[in-house]
Amino acid sequence: MGATQTRSGQEYQELAERTGFSAEQIRNLHKRFQQLSGNEDTISREHLKSIPALANNPIRKQVIEAFFDKRNQHGNELGSYEEIGFEEFLMVMSHFRPPTLRTTEEEKEAMRKEKVRFLFNMHDTDGDGKITLVEYRKVVEELLSKSGTIGQEAAKAIADAAMLEVASTNVPNMGPDEFYEGITLEHFEEILKGLEMETRMHVRFLDVNTSNVYCGK
After folding, report:
1. What is the rounded CA–CA span in Å between residue 107 and residue 187?
2. What three-state secondary structure class fits 114?
3. Most buried residue, 26, 78, 114, 189, by CB count within 10 Å?
């Protein structure tokens, strides 16, 4: 694996058209990628695990896995990468890009849908199109148990109750003997309806020491 190659202005422009970032933002993100990779062509999960700001993040594992999830490359491919190059890294970063003053309402709505799908993919760990009770429970348990104020069994009970509430909301006429298979993307979008998230999704731990890279609120 050789050193990361210098990119031309045309390459930056092509990436800008694909991701919505400016060429200057891409240059700075490329610098950050080089810092993470040690000037190599690719990064692995271990590179992201070494970021100090991620150490205490309760969903650290999900955040890292999101960078290697093929579903987050704006395509329909399933599976995950062992390592990713700068273009794959940049495509994932584009999900965190906030709207600008020139962003149209139509573009904002498209950005929101992308962010919702990105979050959905983080929780739908097996890629079957549903966030099951097991997957949902795991995330809630991690969020609550790592706070140090609640035990695993209590966290499990809260997750089960929350999923039951989601089920009763999404399938109001579900019978007592029916099994709720899980939260679909459609249900997930409904749950997040009304939540302002266009500027709230950010990756502060990836910022370079420059104002040109900032990708969140």
Report:
1. 22
2. helix
3. 26
Query: Taking the CB of residue 203, how many other CB atoms lie within 10 A of it?
Result: 19
Average pLDDT over residues 152-172: 71
The pLDDT of residue 175 is above 70: no
Radius of gyration of the chain from Cα atoms?
Answer: 19
The predicted model scores a pTM of 0.76
Question: Residue 179: is its pLDDT beyond 80?
Answer: no
Burial of 11 (0-12, 13-18, 19+ CB in 10 A): middle
Helix (H) or strand (E) holding 61: helix 60-66
Whether 165 contacts 133, CB under 8 Å: no
Beta-strand relationship, 130-131 and 183-184: antiparallel
Residue 41, pLDDT score? 96
Tokens coding 51: 């970021």
